[in-house]
Automatic annotation (TrEMBL):
InterPro entries: AmpC-like (IPR050491), Beta-lactam-related (IPR001466), Beta-lactam/transpept-like (IPR012338), DUF7586 (IPR056008). It holds the Pfam family DUF7586. Residues 21-335 form the Beta-lactamase-related domain. PANTHER family: D-ALANYL-D-ALANINE CARBOXYPEPTIDASE, D-ALANYL-D-ALANINE-CARBOXYPEPTIDASE/ENDOPEPTIDASE AMPH. This is Serine hydrolase. Transmembrane segments: none annotated. Keywords: Hydrolase. Gene3D superfamilies: DD-peptidase/beta-lactamase superfamily (3.40.710.10). Its EC number is 3.1.1.103. Residues 354-438 form the DUF7586 domain.
Amino acid sequence: MTTSEVLLPSTRRALLHRVATAQSEGRAPSLVAAVRRDGEIAWSGARSCVDGHEPDGETQFRIGSITKTFTAVLVMRLRDEGLLDLDDPLEKHLPNTDKGVGQVTVFQLLGHSGGLGAETPAPWWERTPGTTRPELADVLGDEPLIHPSGHGHHYSNPGYTLLGSLVEALRGESWADVLRREILEPLGMDRTTQQARAPHARGWAVHPWADVMLPEPAEDLGLMAPAGQLWSTTTDLLRFAAFLAQGDERVLCASSVAEMRVPAAPHETGDWAGAYGLGLQVLRRGSRTLFGHSGSLPGFLATLLFSVEDDVAAVVLSNATSGPLTGTVAGDLIQIVADAEPRMPEPWRPLPEVDEELLALTGPWYWGTQVHALKLLVDGGLELQPLRGIGRAARFRARPDGTWVGLNGYYAGETLQVVRADDGTVDHLDLGSFVFTREPYERTAAIPGGVNADGWRGLNL
């Protein structure tokens, strides 16, 4: 499918204008972007300071910390295979991680809440060879923990070096080999590599006060590779975005990638517009939630973002140390497409078959005097929502034992149980010990504390 068949000319014009503005105002040697929607690359465009040499979807740029998301997927695969638990302390799998680092959990490292410092000890790791830090001790330094573990978010590049070493320890081979076999090859990402492969952009620094450039070094990061080594393209990264939105059984199931999108720790006070899941950034733009990751290394800026609800993803890559705000641009590209050409809803269709017992549970239920509605969903699940005002809404999935487990909100992980009377009729619903009845404080239901025998009354009774 060609771009002209996917988006309207006015939408394509708006996308190209946003990219052109970003390259010009950001004073970037080049900038390339692409958008994916409904399983297709819907648009791509680029601008360059050299006429006729715009990068395309196969041109590699360094993607910096987007690499962390790949490392996080590898760790989640280990979890899903039962080789580790996210609550395991690191030392369970990486012995001799001293100075308190061994007690940091895998979950905390994935979500940057382990308390580790943001960077390695000097010299500046992004501009020096990985051989400068041949051992984990060189990456961590003498005082690796600068905050209490688990008490909040503090971004840590060394933390992802530890996760890369964890992958190597449990797989018995290099992080790069595991990455290629378990993610890149299954997803067809043959232009994502540890070292640059032509055609690729060169990294540049642009002088802040003059229109001149300086070439940046491109170092092999060694042990720090799992935090920021990779080179990739817009085409490959859009494939990765589709996987992060939907899952792929060859790599990681849909429920596990959804787990990665859940905020893992609160940010600092006031930083309400963003959070961090397990290897994924979570951003709020108006009413829209975006997921993905940004990345930077000397000479390069990169952002991958996607909206699950809109089924739109955008990738923006540039070969400048600073200047173009790739994260803002990527979010704008998603907004342009999603607002100008909203996603068509699927046609309504009835359920293929009727479960009479579930159907009988639908309708109004009362928690005390607060009315809720229980609805049967097309996937066979249940949804409980308040009918008046703001309250606790949740979806539920059936368990084999006949109970239901909450999937979101206040009741996430809580148990919903249908409690029956001796004659087999439904007496009430028990949701985490709360009783829901068909009538407000129904006399015949087993309500803790009982119901006053005199019943409801007016003011003068």
